[in-house]
Task: structure prediction
Amino acid sequence: MGGEGRLRYVDEYRNKEIAQKILRQIRSISKKKINLMEVCGTHTVVIFRNGIRKILPSNIDLISGPGCPVCVTPISYIDEIIALSKKDNFIITTFGDMM
Result:
């Protein structure tokens, strides 16, 4: 996808009228207590920077999760797996973002 298509989607998500419409829909649909966990620290930062936590109804609670595997894995684990990877007959499996 070219830059034009990407920017169109960014502009749509930052459009005040569209955002207000989505917020009205959330408020009309969500009546019971809802807990949502954002797993990745990047998601937490984006939610904070855009003020999403402040505008959600009080029955929706955002919980900051443990962080994605890449962000929370200690460097000592990375060093250890690199050392293990140099051994014969040793297979390492991981999620793509950890590569």
The helical segments are 3-13, 16-29, 41-49, 52-55, 69-72, 75-85. The first strand starts at residue 34 and ends at 38. The radius of gyration is 20 Å. Strands lie at 34-38, 60-64.
